[in-house]
Automatic annotation (TrEMBL):
Keywords: ATP-binding, Magnesium, Membrane, Metal-binding, Nucleotide-binding, Translocase, Transmembrane, Transmembrane helix. ATP binds at D392, K393, T394, E496, F537, K560, R594, T674, G675, D676, R804, K810, N833, D834. The active site is at D392. Residues 856-1025 form the P-type ATPase C-terminal domain. One of its GO terms (biological process) is phospholipid translocation. Residues 14-79 form the P-type ATPase N-terminal domain. The gene is atp8b4. It comes from Oncorhynchus tshawytscha (Chinook salmon). It is a multi-pass membrane protein. One of its GO terms (molecular function) is ATPase-coupled intramembrane lipid transporter activity. This is Phospholipid-transporting ATPase. It comes from the Eukaryota. The lineage of its organism: Eukaryota, Metazoa, Chordata, Craniata, Vertebrata. The chain crosses the membrane at residues 274-296, 327-346, 887-908, 920-940, 970-989, 1009-1029.
Amino acid sequence: DMLSEKKRCGERHVRANDRDYNEKFPYADNHIRTCKYNIFTFLPINLFEQFQRAANAYFLVLLILQLIPEISSLSWVTTTVPLVMVLLITAVKDATDDYFRYKSDQQVNSRQSQVLRGNLQNEKWMNVRVGDIIKLENNHFVTADILLLSSSEPYGLCYIETAELDGETNLKVRQALTVTSDLGADITKLADFNGEVICEPPNNKLDKFTGTLYWRDNKYPLDNEKMLLRGCVLRNTEWCFGMVVFAGLQTKLMQNCGRTKFKRTSIDKLMNTLVLWIFGFLVCMGVILAIGNTIWEQKVGRSFSVYLLWDEPIRNNNVVFSGFLTFWSYIIILNTMVPISLYVSVEVIRLGHSYFINWDRKMYYIQKDTPAEARTTTLNEELGQVEFIFSDKTGTLTQNIMVFNKCSINGKSYGDVYDEFGHKVEITERTACVDFSFNPLSDRKFKFHDHSLLEAIKMEEPSVQDFFRLLALCHTVMPEEKNEGDLVYQAQSPDEGALVTAARNFGFVFRSRTPETVTLYEMGTAVNYQLLAILDFNNVRKRMSVIVRNPAGHIKLYCKGADTIIFDRLDPSNHILMNTTSEHLYEFAGEGLRTLALAYKDLDENVLEEWMKRLLYASTVIENREEGLADLYEEIETGLMLLGATAVEDKLQEGVPETIACLTLANIKIWVLTGDKLETAMNIGYSCNMLRDDMNEVFIISGHSVLEVQQQLRLGLMVMKQTLSHDYTCRSAKEHILGLGRVSGTVDVEKTDDFSDDSVFEETIIAEYALIINGHSLAHALEPELEQVLLETACLCKTVICCRVTPMQKAQVVELVKTNKMAVTLAIGDGANDVSMIKTAHIGVGISGQEGMQAVLASDYSFAQFRYLQRLLLVHGRWSYFRMCNFLFYFFYKNFAFTLVHFWFGFFCGFSAQTVYDQWFITLFNIVYTSLPVLAMGLFDQDVNEANSHRYPSLYRPGQLNVLFNKRQFFLCTLQGVGTSFLLFFIPYGAFCLVARDDGSHISDQQAFAVIISTSLVIVVSVQVRDIISKLRHDMPATNMDNTHPSISDQIMKDKGLTRGWKISEDNSGCSYLPFIQFKPAGKCVPSGLEGSKSNTST
């Protein structure tokens, strides 16, 4: 009963050194098995999995039909050979992959570990059990998810590398409880340890753990900082001991091995629809031919019975049954309209495109030895259809290398340099830096130019000292002293590292920490602070606090966080200082700096003692622990006294403005979603040229209620629509662009219908508005009653910036556009807070930057710099889309041309389901005779080279409109295939039908006739490859053109004069200009106005 009660509660109970107790629970052992098959189950399971695919099941049904003699005109070989080849190739691949998984499992399970059973014994990993105490040594992998008990380092510290878990190579620190760290390496004490851990059930959250240790009638809270997870490697630590809490398949590493959500492209969905259409067409053809057979047998067939005896059913005048059998016979014969090789070829082409991305040296970042990586093979052509990009700011657009730049302390701003007349001087490389030689522990790389701050430190101004004391105490940084005085800080975020380094240089050096103390060197004097509590930072709290007792016995709470959060918790007496600091923060943010506010609070001993009791209780509760702790943190973080604010610089990455400009010219909308404050986000917007001074208007949505946000959004919407409705020229331009009254012959009709409600017009014409919305307003705007107004307003603007947003809000914004707009979305980010939007978007791109590898691990594509996104989309994406569309057009065309010859032949063979071609030709047509041209086209064809893909961003537009392969294009390729089959059959027929030899015999028999048709077919469809590609290129519309839609060749071959719809001039420097584009000899697109003079042309 007790055990069932524990199970119902969902808690996990593990007792150290007590296997008998732990075996009462259904806990996994440490044996892992990731392989799917064994030697007996491989064949049935693999075949079952393969026949779950609709295409394989379809061809299996056809094979079964071919085995019925009454309806099969084809040998079973014609379907069996391609089907078996596909099944065999897939099975070999699956078997190979599974064999390597099996060998990997064996290798891991057989690793040796030291397990404490009275004394240390060597055991295989697979024999380790929950509750065992094991010893780990330096550079060894962690055996299971273990609770750290003790280590060779002081205070129970140990260092781990988590690259196997999250891809991060920087070392992380874990720390044992003080009560267990005293066990040390004493085998006797460790063998007698009988603590019981009660914790959360197995889950896949790598960064969270909630549990409590019960030992010697005391309770000790456990969190992620006390755990070593399976897959980690022990580094820089001679040894450590730990207790196994989760083993085998229940470890967090194995819990994260589930399948990720499968993303499908729009072409995949279209192919599925077309296959259904083809099947319907196939049924119609079968019905027509079956009716023909019924009529023929009834009216004509009796005359041929002298040559071929009737089957029994027909002899009894049951011609309807004959038609029924003929229907199934023709279903078999005509099935090659959708050959099984289609799906194999598509996967081969996608795999090739993925390798091209991986091999692209122009997307390789040499400074970090990081190549681009296609982490999926299924989305390549979708890269050529992106319309919305949702980008994080920090670490994505910026370098995420933080430098302490300015600060505000007690109402005074520091960081600017002034001359002797009091005028601000621009800081350059020649500007004199502050001399930190007085501090032997300073970081020599740190630079600061305002000497007045150092003077304030030396004058021992209390507010300035408290400011840097807070920076030196309130953080989670770990120091590492490699040589005497050579300090290296291991920081979880670049911001923390920059702030602690600034305090270090100004004389408040963070030197060391233990679980109970923090040691600073304040102006050369060692000062020990008792660390009473750490109130952790998270994305909801947006602040962090520490509670310390100084040597004099005074207790203080130091807090740093987002200014809006801190200001809400200030004591009312800070009103004047808060206003002054707010002005400084506004100035800092206007310069694109990342800001934090700093505050403190004196605490009473008695109040703290009572609060600490409640904190201890809340931290040992398993259920709702985070909510209880958050309430306690909220309670004590009130009535704060403002100290000042920091401003950290995060520079733009190389090439970001040019990349954004080029993507904008490709008609891709870029929305920035950032956690920074509004002014910082706006400044970055101006730096990236997403915001410009000459914009008509920048709408800032900052309402605090649903009504205010609604009014602000509707006001912006009304302003834009009024401008629209009163501008006759714009209305004419709309008609010019959309061609009202008719739909362009080459544009996807469905897509055009979606855009015809002014979206294309507004997105093209209304290009001078921007929308900026902050987090609390966005929360209201995402309510069901307002989200459509938000979407309509945002999509009319050229630029959208959302600031102070949470990770969940990022995902909600992406989902809003993804759901309501028929447009492909791409999300790009570098941190854990971007994972949700990366997974939500059609395409997720991860930047391998300073914030770890979580975003990369969740992404579909990854690289090191934002500027590579331009090449990924405009070159690889566009080529992949172009190639796939050409491939599908040609593939369907050649198979219709190949298959429908049987249809025409049916009218000349009594609808008897006789095949035209030899059976081996039918079998090998797709996999031998025509495979190389179509694969070569799908893998290597380029309509324009990569230089012109960059130079002419508007060439990307056809993919967004889905011009090259849609339902209309499919209809055209079907007609072309029908026409080709008609000519292939009737020209040879006409040539031979009335011709006889001298002796009166016919000049050609059925076999010769079939050879001529099959030979002609191979030649025609092979030659047609080039013609089809040329036709598609010529039909591809150019954007910003008149309705004549010139071909691509018109754009790229005639850029020195007037080219249908393009008005181009040439300046003295030899740079040619197109509307909105400046073309330089190097081939880089630059918005007109960034360099040189503007083009005097308009859309």
